[in-house]
Amino acid sequence: MAKKNIKLRGFFITIEGLEGSGKSSVIKSLTKFIKDKGFSLKVHREPGSTRIGEKIRKILLDNKNNELSVHTELLLYLAARTQLIEEKLKEDFFINDFVICDRFFDSTLVYQGFALGLGEIVNKSVQMFSLGVTPDLTIVLDTPARKGLSRLKNKDRIESRPLQFHNKLRKGYLYLAKEYPERVKIINARNSLDKVCQNVHKLVEKTFL
Ligand code: TMP
Asked: Phi and psi for 101 in degrees, rounded to 5?
């Protein structure tokens, strides 16, 4: 087991970033890196990874749902999260060395709290509905908003928001990294994919192995 592990559960790593920052490719590569070292690992995504969470995801990302109010949006993200935690994560932590989640509560802090401007209500509700689960390490893939967006083909409801919204996301993530330097680490995602993956592997190795 990993050298810093005296605890009873697996390590929880979350991957965050703007749209088109390359999360999926990085998660694929990190999964291989961790499994090749002989550790067990489970990967989830947010919103989603449960039957109910995937239905909520469809509602949230559907371009037709433009009447969705900002508070309903917040509640749906929280609902998908509690479902994932209660249905899967809590158990996964006990049977795996690592759990990786593609986005977690930092997305809510940044997207709904910071960029949509819901502020304090988000901080409080995120705390309540994360049910005590906090990542051990959060990796933010940092890329300029315009660059990430230019990589996308069919934009969903959130991706279709104005550039100004996406610029705020980046500031939000950088703020979180300053506020929680032990947990939230920024990786420059403007480098080549190989370089980004290498840097992520190094960070995970240094933190846990
Ligand atoms: P993605 O994981 O494929 O990037 O899609 C999820 C989308 O939902 C993405 O635009 C970020 C957004 N999101 C929020 O706005 N708040 C949240 O709490 C989460 C988890 C995701």
From this structure: -125, 130
CA of 139 to the centre of ligand 1 (A): 15
Q: Along the 209 residues of the chain, how does pLDDT read in single tens digits?
A: 444 545 678 999 999 999 999 999 999 999 999 999 999 999 999 999 999 999 999 999 999 999 999 999 999 999 999 999 999 999 999 999 999 999 999 999 999 999 999 999 999 999 999 999 999 999 999 999 999 999 998 999 999 999 999 999 999 999 999 999 999 999 999 999 999 999 999 999 999 98
3-state secondary structure of 5: coil
Task: List, in order, residues 6 or more apart from 8 with CB less than 8 Å away.
Answer: 94
Domains of the chain with CATH codes: 14-208 (3.40.50.300)
**Residue 93 three-state SS:** helix
How many A from CA of 4 to the centre of ligand 1? 31
CB of 106 shorter than 6 A to ligand 1:
no
Nearby residues of 58 by Cβ (< 8 Å), 6 or more positions away? none
- Judge if the beta carbon of residue 46 lies within 6 A of ligand 1: yes
Per DSSP, 86 falls in state I
Phi and psi at residue 180, in whole multiples of 5°?
A: -125, 65
Q: How far is the C-alpha of 131 from the C-alpha of 89, rounded, in Å? A: 11
